[in-house]
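User: Chondroitinase family polysaccharide lyase, Rubellicoccus peritrichatus:
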Amino acid sequence: MKRSYDLSQNLLIFTFCFLASLVRSEADQTSIPLALDESLLSERISVTDGDISLSYRHLSDGAPSLRWDYEPGGTLVIHGRIGWKSQAVEKMVEVEGVDYPWLSEPLGFSMRVCRDDEVTEPDAQKLTVAFGSGDQRDCWFNCYPKRRGWSIVHAIYGWETRGEPSTEMDWVKFTAPHVAGTLYLNDIITCGPLFEASTLPNPERRVFGPYQPARIGEVGSLLVSNRRITGIEEAQPFFKNRAITPLPQKVTEEEIEAFRTIEDRLFPILKEKATKPLSAEKMKELEAEFNKFGITRNGDTINGNPIEYKESYGYCKLMRALGDAWHMTSDHNQQKQISDWFLDMFDYAVKLGDIPSRWYNGRGFVDGCFLMRDVLKKNGQLEEAITYTRQAYLFNQLYDDTGFNGTNVKGADLDYLYTCTVSVMSNILMMDESPEKVRDMREISHFYSTVALDYSPSIADGIKPDGSAFHHNMASARGYGNYTIPIVIEALVYPLSGTVFRITEAAHERLRKLAKQRFFYRTQNHIPLGWRNITLGVHRKDASYKENLFLAKSGTPDGKKKYDDEMAAIYLRIVQNDLYYKDRANDPAIKDILSRGIKPADIPQGTKIYPYTAAAIHRRSDWMFAVSGHSSYMFGRECWGYGIPWMYLRWGLTEVIYPDRKDLEMVNSGFSPDGWDWAHLPGVTAPVREEERLKTVITKRGHDIAEHLYSDQPFVGGVSTRHGNGLFVLKLRGHDKYKLDSFYANKTWFMFGDLIICLGTDIRYDISGESVDTTLFQNRFTPNKDSLWIGEKEVDTFPMKWSEETKSPLWMIDNRAVGYYIPTPTNLSLHIDEQTSGYSFVPGRQDAPDLESQGDFALAKIEHGETPDDASYQYAMKIRTNPDAMADFAASMESSHKPYKVLKADSEAHVIHHDESNSMAYVMFQRDYDLNIGHVIGVTKPCTFIVQEKDTGLEVSLSDPDLHFFYGFGWDVQLDRSRKQMVSYAEPWYYEPSKPSVVRLILKGEYELTDDIGSAEILSSGNGQTVLEFVCVDGLSKVAQLQAK
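Assistant: Predicted structure for Chondroitinase family polysaccharide lyase:
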């Protein structure tokens, strides 16, 4: 593999950026905090009814603060040009010949405010900040700095201010509360860019600025902290929640014992008795980490270095490390030193006010407080720590199970579950044994059981009935769902299990189902490439497996068994085959499982459809076949502009995935990013474009810059049978943004055993100069080692090119033992050669879109030519085959006893017959009362179904792939029927559940139901036909057993 580094291009970019940084506009200069010095006080500040001075009592960035001692209603005015200007078009972003305006960042005011003591009287809190010129007040806002320590004031001009801002504004005026007091001001920026998600709404406006209701959700902003005071308490409804369940009269011995069990499970270090001091090296390491924050005390004040987002990670991590260290040493002097460090960090965090945050950088803080609760209690600060961290982690939301705006919507933000579950559990455990502690532990169990871990509707965050986990309005198999679900099980489900606080059986069963579904769609370390939610490169290890171990230790959902053998068997199957796990021989969990006589679970087999992922998995032996799509409900990809050319990622990408290989740091599907041809993804039918045109182009600024492009086709999904077979269908249409809206295709994959039958019809595209291809395969190829077959001829020449317009059936085998049978006349081409890509995978980096790379590949495709109109294809895949087997298969396809037959392939339906299973599989793109194929006379609406003949009757499996979140046009459709890019959080159907749809099959013959599972109902059976009715929801498969009368 080779890479080239375009140093000249990088140097040019660096030079341009450097020169640009030297050119600052006048408005840019105002983004710099005011220099607080004597000249500012004497020349630019005027005060009435008060006094100002420079103070070193409360420092910010090591600089003095502006101390303002005010009388009721006193004023402080800072003179000088504000520099505000309205948002304007900075540039035009061109996408496929269309210009999109790129707006400048919104400008706003910001500062830090500090108090010596908290004020509780409303009249002592309200601070008015106004802006104007001359005698004219142009705009203003009110804020309420009431807490001890620092708070941050943010307000975007025109968004979070009243009045109308003006470019002529040349003063900012602070009007004091109606009670005398003192404020310390610092980091005053009169006008600077503000990221709109970094501020909160002004409570007096009662308007949530630019946020859509779904985005506000639980907080109104993604960056919430104790010190952001533009109305946090008033704007944040969770702070007003109160527990409505009655307090127990006393704490029982059973509850006290449960608390000890929960503590020991969540913090195993508590069970380890320290027998020796920490090493001198360890103490020096802790001291060095502590010294990074520069915390110092001066009398009753505490100061330190600025702690911004990046530094807060290390800050909270050190809080947890200090808590661990305190329990790991037997030396009282070391414990005293660790306690001093910890208390300094706690006090400084409280003064700053936004450490910890309810986000990824806040993990570890409350854990540390719990481990140091004895120290906090001895110092008289335990209650302060409990109250402070409850505010930081929005604890009071656990008191309300009525859902968003009381609509009983279920589910929870996966970010919150991941970052806060340990913290809210630790917060409760910090409390003394009391009725309040019992109540709150019951509340958290209830909230997780009935809200957070219940099925959420539509594309809202949470888990889904098909086993998907949603975040960012999409199934998150590799990212958020991959690490959130395990932490919830480890930090909450397992600690509470077997105690009086255990989660409900239903919630436990939902998580168990989710874990089994995850086991089905993963290898030991990876998930399919097409299942990635955020397009961020490739990774060595995609899939976690801790949830299986902790579900095993949590017992069965009904509580009858203390150990779940099935979950343990799954864990054993994954870990024992994890190529990267070097210490499995000494793993105590594995030893424990083996001591119970549990054997590894079998590799899952069968077919599963994942409607909420718009994907399907088909498994046999040790391999899996994966296919993924997108629809009007599930967008194709989330891309934040990282330069990965994954335009066609979910356009029907098919992957034949074999077991993991240690020499391969990604899923074993033939994929390799270096040199990959991104216009030819396996299984995909798409226009052939150069790589640069397959990259996402971001056309908007702000928090929701990510691109979420929906299709306008809701018919995506499939059906599976109880015998492990199934089908997946994708109605495909490209998006207007990239001028792909004239592209259409109907694609189906029928999956039976080791045979995959692939049909494509109605392929259309209007743009000339761009050909359309259907890619059969694209695999890494190793010259002098790999070979493939075209018919009975082995091909190992490198490089080579071959093309043919076939007149008769032809078969091939790629270099991964996957056979392809092409029965109809087709334009085929194949090349084995070195390929070049502008994207590269660099170990240690998620992706490198700026590095050119090369790789050797074998690529075969069906060519439909330019501007196809009603083009089609047919081919079949045989997994893990060989030349003899393929020759026999091809011969059998010429016989009267064919393995499969295509009975219909057009715009109305795709129908095939599979001989071995004696099944007919149907994809109905429209209703058809006169179908008359096989046992089916007609069907009343589009659907997918499989009819299998049995000795005594029929087994019918059916689903409606349309999730029916809404009817009619999508939110992104304009008056001229074109579509534009929309923020997915703004969809009006964001919280709409999948609506039931009724499908009726008219069957030849008279039948009666032989099962009582309620999946179907016979409406009539007589006169030689039967009307069978299914009520479908969530895209899931239904099954009915019928026997002839």
